[in-house]
Amino acid sequence: MKLTRTADLWWKNAVVYCLDVETFHDSDGDGHGDFRGLTQKIDHLHNLGVTCVWLMPFFPSPDRDDGYDITDFYGVDPRLGTHGDFVEFVRTARDRGIRVIADLVVNHTSDQHPWFQEARSSKDNPRRDWYVWRDQPPPDAEKGVVFPDKEKSLWELDKKTGQYYLHRFYKHQPDLNVANPEVRDEIARVMGFWMELGLSGFRVDAVPFLLEAPVQDLPDPHDYLCDLRAFLSRRNGEGVLLGEVNLPYTDTMKFFGSADGVGDELNMCFDFIGMQQMYLSLARKDASPLTHALKERPLPPRDCHWATFVRNHDELTLDKLTEPERQEVFAAFGPDPDMQLYGRGLRRRLPSMLDGDLRRIKMVYSLLFALPGTPVLFYGEEVGMTEDLSQEGRLAVRTPMWWDAAREQRHDDDSLLSWIKQLIRAYRDCPELAWGTYELIDTPEPAVLAHRCDIDGGTVIAVHNLGDEEAELDLSSVDGELTDVFTEQPVKPKFTLEPYGCRWLRAWAEGVQVSR
Ligand code: NOJ
C-alpha cells in the first residue's frame, strides 16, 4: 500500500493552471501574448504555488475555434513564438518545479490542414481514409451537435467528391479517423515530438468523440486509449493524460481504464458532474446537490484522480442538470440571455456570477482545494477576473490576463490572490487532502458541507457554508484537539460559521505524525 504515495504520481497533489499563451502576457507589444511573455511571468505562477501549467493550443491555426482548429500539429503559431521560445519556457518552468502539459486536439484538424486538403482532393487520395466519409449522412446526423448556434448537422457535403465528412464540432473541423492505423501512429508521433521538447503530458480534448468515430472498425475503442497511455508511459514514465470527458460518472469511469484496479487509460478526468452540482448548490444556498454528487462519485482506480475545477475556457456547461435545475442556475447567475450560450451554459466567470462578493468567492475556491481531486485553475481566477460580454461567444471568458490586478493584490493580505496562495500552500501541506480517503460528515445545517480527509492517522476537516446565514457546527465527535490550518490556533469543537464562511481544521490525535 505504501507505494501508492510515491512522488512520481505527481498529478495527485498537483496544482494545474490552464492558460492561453495568446492572452497571457505580450512581451513585444504587438497586441497578443507570446511564449517570451509567458516565460517572463513564470514567477507569478511559481509564487502562486502552481506545479503544472496546461497550455491551450499554441499551434498554427486559422483560429476559427481559438486554436482548437490546427493546421500543423508539429508547429508553433508564429504569432506566439518559435520552438526555441517554447523550449525556453518549458525549461524555465522546470527550473521552478513546474511541469508543462498541453492540449492534444486530435479528434479533428482544421479543414485547412494539408492532410484534409489532400484527403478532400479525390476519393482515391491516400489521405482520404484519414477522415470519416459517407455517401449519405446517417438519419441521426443532427443529433449531438455541439455548437447549435452555428451547425445543424455533424455531416457536411464535400461538393467536389460528393461525399459527406464527419465533424463533431464546427464544419471547418473535420474529424480524424482513429480507426486508421496510420492516423493512430501519427498521433503517437505528435505526442512523442512534444514530449521530446519537454512536455509532461497532455490535456486530451473531447475524448469520447475521439474514440467514437467509426466505431464499427474499432471493436473496443478503449484499447486505443490504453495504447496511447502505454506509449506515453514508455516515453515518459511520469507522463500524464488529463481527459475532457463530460459524461455521467459511470460512463466517465470507463475512461480511467482499470488494469488490475490501477488504471491504464486517462490518469485524470475532469469532474464535470461535481462542478455542475456545485453551481446548483451555490444557486440554492444548499449543500445537498453537491453532497449528493460527492456520494455518487465513484472512486477512480488507484493511481488515477478526478480533476476538479470552478471555471474553464469554455462556457460554464450545465448540460447535465435537468431543465428546471439549469433554469435555476441561469436565474441566479446568468439571467440575461446574452450571458447564456448554446442553451446549456453561461459565458461568465465566477466573480461576476457572485456579484463580486469576496467572502463567497473565497469560500468557493476553498472548496476547490479542500475537496478531493486535483484542482485546475483557469488563468485570472486567482485575481478575480470577470468576463467581457462584448466579446463573441466563449471569448468572453478568454480576455487578456489582468496583470494590474495581480500587482495590486500581491501585497494585500486580504486579497483573493493572497487567499488562493494560502489555499495552495495549505493544500500542498496537508497530504490528507490529495492522498487520503475522504468522508462526508453529517451536519444538521443544510447549507453546510463538512468533510474529513484521513491518511496515516492524520486528519483534516473542512467545513463550508454555502448559505448566507450563520451556521452552528459541532465537531465533538472528531477525535483529538482541533487547530485551524491557516492560523494554527486551537479551535473549540462547537463554533459558529459565518455566512459563506469556511474553515480547514487539523485534528491532532495523540502520537500521530503525518509524513509529507
Ligand atoms: C473542447 C474544447 O474545450 C473547446 O474549446 C473546443 O472548441 C472543442 N473541444 C473543439 O476542439
Automatic annotation (TrEMBL):
Q: Which domain of life is it from?
A: Bacteria
Q: Name one GO biological process term.
A: carbohydrate metabolic process
**Glycosyl hydrolase family 13 catalytic domain: residues covered:** 18-427
Task: Fetch the Pfam families from UniProt.
Answer: Alpha-amylase (PF00128), SupH-like_C (PF22157)
The protein depicted here goes by the name: Trehalose synthase
Task: Look up and give the organism this protein is from.
Answer: Saccharothrix variisporea
